[in-house]
Amino acid sequence: LSTGLDLPGRFLFATLTLMTLIGILVFIEEAVYIYRKIPSSKRSIIIWINAAAPVISTTSCIGMWVPRSTMFTDFTAGIFFAIVIHKFLMMMIKECGGQKVLLRRFENGRFTISTGPCCCCCLCLPRVPITRQTLFWLKLGTFQFAVFRPVLIFLSIVLWTNGNYVLYNLSPKGPALWISCFIGALTLCALWAVGIMFRKVRILLKCKNIIPKFALYQFIVILNHLQTTIINIFATQKIIPCAPPLSSTARGSYIAQQLLIMEMFLITVISRVVYRRKYHDLEPPECPAEEPGDKKQTP
Fold this sequence. Notes:
Layout: H1 7-37, H2 40-65, H3 70-95, H4 99-105, E1 110-111, E2 128-129, H5 132-161, H6 175-201, H7 210-236, H8 248-276
Antiparallel strand pairs: 1-2
Main location: membrane
Subcellular location: Membrane
Organism: Chaetops frenatus (Rufous rock-jumper)
């Protein structure tokens, strides 16, 4: 590939590769800090979440240098981020003190399910009590995405190696359209579960900067999914012109990968600042007042 690049192209590739390497080093340094300073109950979850941007940047860099590996690198990033979405929900529960403490804090509270991306316009939906069962359904909403997306991606690779799966062929007779729609529905359910939980705990966890953390997570979702999808649609419709020897779809893939490398580098650096700060633990929830008759007299 490097033999077909002019001098500005080689400089661009070298700069983006250097940004990827710096992002990996920043993440490794941050992971060492988290491993030393963060309690073991939260350690692995926070490392997983911080790894999202460097992993996406690395897969994009590999796909930029080796164009034929684009499908595998995109699928790898998709599988990893599906796990990160579940980890982010679990992090919010952990930051509240765990499931038992969260249930005590919001003993009489309710979840507002009329939130994005699924039901933000359905204001008539009832508010759901916060119980062990509703927490189970929220965790299931993200866990199903972490399980089923790798299965569907594996199925796509099997069909692709057999010549039946064409990424840009969205005809109803091909499997690409149906697999993409199913993955999209699973994605919306997982994001909906995270949105419901965030809307409830954002005031409580404001002292732990949960709003900037959620914003970084949302940026990764938008840039990795929505931005890439829009660029691929433009390339498929020939809005992005071809530039021999690159076709429109190949140019669209290059543009998406190069943008992701720069954006994920910035998110990696910002995440280091947001997650590295020391936060105080929340005060334990107040115990319900005891009845006068229930309090035993001690001699």
